[in-house]
Amino acid sequence: MKNLLSITDLDRDDLETMLSLSEDFLHVTERDIPKVPALQGKVVVSLFYEDSTRTRISFETAAKRLSCDVMSFSVGSSSVNKGEGLRDTVQTIAAMGVDAVVVRHSAAGAPNRVASWIDASIINAGDGSHEHPTQALLDLLTLRRKRGSDLSGLRVAIVGDIVHSRVARSLVLGLDAVGAHTTLVAPPTLLPDSLEGWPVDVTHDLDSLLPELDVLYLLRIQRERQSASRLPSLREYTARWGLTVERASRLKPDTLVMHPGPMNRGVEIAAEVAEGPASLIKEQVTNGVAVRMAVLYTLLGSGGTVA
Ligand code: NCD
Prior knowledge:
Bound molecules: N-carbamoyl-L-aspartate
Radius of gyration: 19 Å
Strand order of the largest sheet: 7-6-5-8-9
Number of helices: 11
CATH architecture of the largest domain: 3-Layer(aba) Sandwich
Number of strands: 9
Order of helices and strands: HEHEHEHEHEHEEHEHHEHH
């Protein structure tokens, strides 16, 4: 395996292997010195054309914990501002000798194009509204650590801004691969025009689902990608689809609450619920580092032992 462009690059066995390896790396990250020499000398570049806090830092931390050399490219301070195109930028970076490039871009398919231009391994860290495979992996790891390695039959609702969400697309495919059952919940204007091929049920009614769910996964309302016509007022959104304290009280006691971040507190999720005992939001972030270590190790490692 050379690149990770889509969660579908991993079949069910690959997913299980990647998640088990992530658990091994989670133990590494819990050590006093959370670092192994596994990828010493390998060079990883993070190439982010869109804003990011957790994904970029998570990848860079993961690479450093594997003893890679890490270079960071930010559009704001680069020759992109002098008009350099993606292909020239990528080929310039590749000419310096890099082993992996972690790409985030607002255009769907940008990481695939980058992969066709250079020899380094390419990891998709989010392309437009298309895919975000390492987010799906970290979400599966988080569920697996709570519910055990058999996630089949798990009832999951993904709620919110589905149409703009690369997180939803990758997660739906990942959940399907492990046998979980997903329902998408959103106002009609925040669903894609066609859901053909999505292995999901769809409803506009969150309230009727609440008592049945094992996992409630909230998505951020992506205000930066929103056209005014799609979204009712934020207040109306919260009233019908927000995980308020009152709604949370109607979940089963063991329902897990997740969100990929960044959160709009008080819009899709109440602050009290985000901080509450059902919330796995901090674990998701922690697990993200271990998953990205596993991905880098799988793509760049020699196949030897982890530590
Ligand atoms: C997401 C993203 O950028 O796709 N965040 C993340 O990577 N954790 C989701 C979002 O921006 O809402």
